[in-house]
Fold:
Amino acid sequence: MTQDEKKCAGIWMDHREAIFITNENGEFAIQEKIKSEAYHGRKGEHTSNNAKRNVDRKYHKDLSNHLMNYDDIYLFGPGTSQEELQNFLQQDLHFKNKNITLGTASHITDPQMVAQVRDFFA
Structure:
């Protein structure tokens, strides 16, 4: 498979939202914005940690379902959310032969996100 035949996707993400960017019709564009469920703290540290872990796992599963059909994946954003998603994906055999790259970006505009993904895959 040549580089032109590979399906590429980029996700700008933080712990609350992910912006899914692909090249479907010859041009990179935002396809969808995916929100994490709101986490509401619960009483007790153990219960609170488990609830947050479950919210994060569902968010990562939602994102992995969007990325399943892509060969080259670029994850970027502020903080560590992209590293956490990469670790989640590496545990899934569906992503064993996919190229996953991490990048960083603070809170940027939608056009800047699209440009960063386009430039990464150029």
Summary: DSSP finds three helices and five strands in the chain. The CA atoms of residues 79 and 119 lie 21 Å apart. The helical segments are 45-67, 81-90, 110-121.
